[in-house]
Amino acid sequence: MAYFPTIEKIKYEGTETNNPLAFRHYNPEEIVLGKTMKEHMRFAIAYWHTFVNEGNDPFGQGVNERTWLTDDPMETAKNRVEAAFEFFEKLGVEYFCFHDMDVAPFGNSLEEFFKNLDEIVDLIEKKMEETGIKLLWNTADRHANPIYVNGAASSNNADVYAVSAAQVKKGIDISKRLGGKNFVFWGGREGYETLLNTDMAFEEENIARLYKMAIAYSNEIGHEELTFLLEPKPKEPMKHQYDFDAATSMAFLQKYDLTDRFKLNLEANHATLAGHTFEHEMNVARNYNALGSLDANQGDMLLGWDTDEFPTDLYSVTLAMYEVLENGGIAPGGINFDAKVRRTSFEMEDLFLAHIAGMDTFARGLKAAARLKEDKFFDNLKADRYASYQEGIGKDIISDKTDLKSLTEYALSNKEVKNKSGHIELVKAKLNEYIY
């Protein structure tokens, strides 16, 4: 059965086309700075928003029209596998990612859940072999189940901790079986509601224990190449989550000696919730050599929650792709569309239209970022701004040839301190020329 019978394979047709089911800017084989577009961006489809989301919100029931739905949860899960790989092939995307509970129903017990997972993963493995489509990353959903009301690895209940660990083990087993290169930890409920009854240090120590067990187990089963990705988010669903932002997450990883196997999976909308820009979070991660993978979406600045809109903000995407280029690429991570169609975009066709919009935006962002890099736009700005450190007292400072006494002597003898305008309005105007 074809789930998208009226949709042909999406092709690149260029900016002259009026076909909404075609790429105007994303040409997967186009060479940009020595690599193809598809190599630069390694697009992936998020199973949860694309095939599981019903289009409901806190004020209304689901509205999405989805032809794979049945009254039998396992039958629906099997249909989703067929629909997903049809979608991947027609969109021309080579990677996908999923939570365990996206692909299989939990059932009535952990044992039943694992049995359901095995059955569905059999189907996924077969489709991967048939199509050549690869797993970017998978993860364990340790937030949706009601037992995780007080957290998973941060739970006050040791029995809950054990279930959480079992899901992680199963997820690593699946990753090895499907040839996954990354495994994500998003601590959806790893945080606290109030400090009145919370031992924060104890909870964070328990989270670190689980991560170390995950590393040990991946080594034990010969899956040493697996990269673990920690995904920051400051709030939602918990009031305060432990992985607040990139800097907080890196402090945690350094404290517990986890940096050898962990990098960060960064999401644009989570950066917004933390009061940062996407490029800020990426730059922080890059400074720690920890930029692992990206969740591509955007938030609505007028709304105070995680809206997970498809990325169409060219300004933000350009600066994000510049960070990717400066990082030397994103592999073995990628750019997954952790984005859901708006509730008013409920038809099957909208899944394609939304992803096309996101992929075209990233393609334009990549080309703009490449122009910025080729012209050394940011390099020249920074070189000029920090020029005082290339000679004289500045050079002595960064060469570690000064101390407080010598700097005091210099400051007292220097009769005039003169700053130079950054002309930031001009800089932003020039940046607009590159982007638009």
CATH architecture of the largest domain: Alpha-Beta Barrel
**If you consult CATH, what is the topology of the largest domain?**
TIM Barrel
* Unreliable stretches covering 5 or more consecutive residues: none
CATH homologous superfamily name of the largest domain?
Divalent-metal-dependent TIM barrel enzymes
List the strand order in the largest sheet.
3-4-5-6-8-10-11-12
Instruction: Give the count of helical stretches.
Output: 16
Q: How many DSSP E strands?
A: 12
Strand content: 5-15%
How is this structure best described in words?
There is one protein chain. The chain has 436 residues and is α/β, with parallel strands linked by helices. The strands form three sheets. It has an eight-stranded parallel beta barrel with strand order 3-4-5-6-8-10-11-12, surrounded by four helices. Strands 1-2 form a two-stranded antiparallel sheet. The chain has 16 helices and twelve strands. Helices cover 46% and strands 10% of the residues. It has helices at 37-41, 47-52, 73-91, 100-103, 110-131, 158-178, 200-220, 246-255, 268-273, 278-287, 314-326, 348-374, 377-385, 392-398, 404-413, 424-435; strands at 31-32, 35-36, 43-46, 95-99, 134-139, 182-185, 191-192, 227-230, 240-241, 262-267, 291-295, 335-337. It has two domains: 31-374, Alpha-Beta Barrel (TIM Barrel), CATH 3.20.20.150; 378-435, no CATH class. It is globular and about 80 Å long. Mg(2+) 2 binds at residues 267, 270, 306, 308. It comes from Jeotgalibaca porci. Mg(2+) 1 binds at residues 231, 267, 295, 338.
